[in-house]
Each structure stands twice: as structure tokens, then as C-alpha cells.
Amino acid sequence: MASTHKRSALAKGGARRPPVRRKNLNIDQEKLDRVVKILGSKSETEAIDKALDIVLYRDELVEGIERIIGTGGVENYFDDHPDW
To answer: First vs last Cα of the chain: how many Å apart?
Structure first.
């Protein structure tokens, strides 16, 4: 039988959940209130989790763009047309 610790780390279907730790942070309450409202979160914790997801997604996008910059195949139309 699996230990309680191992069971608690498993989500439905046996998928592993990332580790979650309790944190005590000093956060600008006005910013946090705005983020909760903007993201439509039900709690401050949910808002922070969503905001972290957004930052991580942005980082993935930037990395992807940096990988394709200069790979060719796309003409810079605006540089070739000075009358724009």
C-alpha cells in the first residue's frame, strides 16, 4: 500500500502533481487585489498561481521567438518599402 505522502502527491489518474509549499510573503496588497480581479481568481493563492503560470508562459514564448529569429524564410517587408 502506498504511503500517505506518496498518495498525496498523486492527482486523479495517477499523474504526479508538482510540489506545493506554504510561503509567508510580503506582497503589495493593492497589486494583489488588482491581480485577483484581473484574473478572476477565487482566492489570492489562485491569483498568484495563475500569475506565475503567465510569467512562465511568457518566458517560453520569448525562448521560442529567440530560437526562430534569423532562421530565414520571412522577408522583412517594411524595410524594403521605405514609403511605409
So the answer is: 70
Residue 7 lies in a domain: no
> How large is the angle between the packed helices 44-68 and 29-39, nearest 10 degrees?
80
How many residues does this entry show for the chain? 84
The per-residue pLDDT for range 26-61, each reduced to its tens digit, is: 999 999 999 999 999 999 999 999 999 999 999 999
Q: Give the three-class secondary structure for 11.
A: coil
Q: What are the grid coordinates assigned to 34, written together?
A: 488588482
Quickly count: other Cβ atoms within 10 Å of residue 36's Cβ. Answer: 19
Q: 32 is in which domain, residue-wise? A: 25-69
1 inside domain: no
Residue 18 in domain: no
Domain count, the chain: 1
What are the backbone angles phi and psi of residue 43, rounded to the nearest 5°?
Answer: -150, 165
pLDDT at 19 > cutoff 80: yes
